Amino acid sequence: MQQTVGKVYLVGGGPGDPGLLTLKGQRCLTEADVVLYDGLVNPLLLRHTQARAVRTCRVDEGAGRRLDQAEINAQLIQEAKAGRCVVRLKGGDPFIFGRGSEEAAALAAEGIPFEVVPGITAATASAAYAGISLTHRDHASAVAFVTGHEDPTKPSSALDYDALARFPGTLVFYMGMHRLPSIASSLVAAGKSKDTPVAVICRGSQPMQRTVTGTLHDIVERVQDAGLRPPSLIIVGNCVLQRDAIDWFERTPLFGQRIGITRPEAQADSVIDLAISLGAEPVLMPTIRIRPVSDWSDVDATLDRLADFDWLVFTSVNGVDAFLGRLWDRGGDARKLSGIRIACIGDATRVHLEQYRLRADLVPESFRAEALAEALAPHVSGQRVLWARANRGREVLPEALRAAGADYEQVVVYEHEDATSLPAHVASQIERGELHWIALSSPSIARNLAAQLSPEARGRLGNTTRLAAISPVTLAAAQDCGLPVAAVATTHTWPGIFEAIQAVMSESSR
Ligand code: SAH
After folding, report:
1. pLDDT tens digits, the chain, 510 residues: what are they?
2. Residue 97 CB–ligand 1 contact under 6 Å
3. Choice from 10, 42, 150, 233 to test ligand 1 binding pocket (greatest atom count within 8 A of CB)
4. Under a CB-based contact definition with an 8 Å cutoff, are residues 14 and 90 in contact?
């Protein structure tokens, strides 16, 4: 039987902010079997896919192997011919200086079905994130996207600088950083005023965005002084002047802060989104992985006699998912909980429970096992209480509930597994002083981090890398392991951690 041919989607991944992906692009990623992504793509976009992902670098980078364009084309064709759904994910827009049309042509020549999903190109995104309107009606009636890749000193240069100098609008140069001196001098030589405003935007739309402004006369020096590097865009025109008034992104509260997110990866989505919305760069460094129990027999036996219990206690979102997920998988549903009262340790757990359309009957004021035990104590004497818990954690609840006269039982519904070491890129970010914060969201995370740090990395803590703790309990655990903590959340949630970091930063900038 002949193999059905798959399909290739040439998808624009946007300029770096992972929120700047289209809905269609996201759907393609969800459906893909294979993703080939290029060096400009933010790897966070891969969180939308379960596919096998291959990074294609056209430039040598570290140990990564270089793939040339012919090899990429051949791989797309081969994967599609094997019947797979392939996403070719490219930085920005696939057809703007992206060679996407060459890939499309190679697919067309082989009769392979494909679609092109446009993306937000670097020019519009970087300009918007730097507070520059490329077509501001007072300043520009046109905009030109220009490649700076050609060498203007060569007679064969494709760029007509006379025409560019006369162009009645904004010029945006892609791939022009290494030729900035000759681009600036060629424009002036062709008659453009040396006072024409210029902005160079590095890593546009990303927390590490940097913008340097000047004129054709002094931009080279300013960019050199600032040490800007590719990927950068050069924007030439009066529209640059507007930036001072409407530059918004570089003023976000945690702009440019690289923050280690220690939360287990599967639950990191909302934290990633929050960090990005505050201008920070989230660095995933889960020190704990969550895994299902290897043997469900205890859980199943407990689920079979749910009617025996008066109270059900959840102290984590994972506990809710594991317990209710197993109940569902075995053919049960929320009706099995009728008559049982539910207690949650805090708001995150309560809100998560509501997604199952279940309301918590009791949530303590403060997010601590002690507070939960205290709130439960008046209700549990002679009552049968079940805690759906992890394989380890603090033993405050069992002791306190038994002391309050409860007929206490517990069942392990999920397991914590320690990561044995920090991801290599995180370790080197700490050692190079490039990770600004590490957010600790539980005592065991604090202890794991302490165990994973090299002596060099430890030496950085408190200086270039500061620690933020979610609660006093986590603070105490960190201090017990000799970790210095610079910020402690007053609201014991992830948003609370970010607020605490913000508070420390505005304190120190005063
Ligand atoms: N297809 C991409 C462009 C690829 S060419 C797009 O539509 O955006 C690569 C060039 O794009 C880089 O040399 C740089 O000039 C520019 N570029 C890409 N991402 C950028 C970013 N986040 N900030 C500034 N420039 C960027």
Report:
1. 566 899 999 999 999 999 999 999 999 999 999 999 998 999 999 999 999 888 887 555 454 556 788 999 999 999 999 999 999 999 999 999 989 999 999 999 999 999 999 999 999 999 999 999 999 998 899 999 999 987 556 666 678 999 999 999 999 999 999 999 999 999 999 999 999 999 999 999 999 999 999 999 999 999 999 999 999 999 999 999 989 999 999 999 999 999 999 988 888 999 999 999 999 999 999 988 889 999 999 999 999 999 999 999 999 999 999 999 999 999 999 999 999 999 999 888 999 999 999 999 999 988 789 999 999 999 999 999 999 999 988 889 999 999 999 999 999 999 988 888 888 999 999 999 999 999 999 898 999 999 998 888 888 888 899 999 999 999 999 999 999 999 999 998 899 999 999 999 998 877
2. yes
3. 233
4. no
CA angle 41, 43, 47 (to 5 degrees): 125
- Establish whether domains 258-287+420-508 and 291-417 are of one fold: yes
CA pair distance 485, 468, nearest whole angstrom: 6
The verdict on the CB of residue 40 being under 6 Å from ligand 1 is yes
For the Cβ of 25 lying below 6 angstroms from any atom of ligand 1, the answer is no
Question: What is 291-417's CATH number?
Answer: 3.40.50.10090
Domain boundaries along the sequence of the chain: 7-119, 124-247, 258-287+420-508, 291-417
The reply to whether ligand 1 has any atom less than 6 angstroms from the CB of 38 is: no
Q: How far is the CA of 144 from the centre of ligand 1 (A)?
A: 15
Q: Which of 129, 146, 174 to mutate to test the pocket of ligand 1 (most atoms within 8 A of CB)?
A: 174
* Ligand 1 atom at shortest distance from the alpha carbon of 176: 15
CA of 126 to the centre of ligand 1 (A): 9
Distance 415 CA to ligand 1 centre (A): 43
Torsion angles phi and psi, residue 70, rounded to 5? -65, -35
Q: How is the beta sheet containing 288-292 ordered, strand by strand?
A: 288-292, 407-418, 384-390, 311-314, 341-344
* CA 92 / ligand 1 centre spacing (Å): 7
Kindly give the distance from the C-alpha atom of residue 301 to the centroid of ligand 1, in angstroms, as a whole number.
57
> Best substitution site from 97, 134, 149, 150 to test ligand 1's pocket, by max atoms within 8 Å of Cβ?
97
CATH topology of domain 124-247: 3.30.950
Nearest partner of 270 among 47, 21, 22, 35, judged by Cα: 47
d(CA 366, CA 349): 13
Phi, psi of 466 (to 5 degrees): -105, 155
Q: What is the CATH number of domain 258-287+420-508?
A: 3.40.50.10090
With tokens 């800007």, the residue in question is 228
Residue nearest to atom 24 of ligand 1 (CA): 232
Fold classification of 7-119 (topology level): Cobalt-precorrin-4 Transmethylase; domain 1 (3.40.1010)
Give start and end residues of each alpha helix (H) in 381-465.
396-403, 424-431, 443-452, 455-460
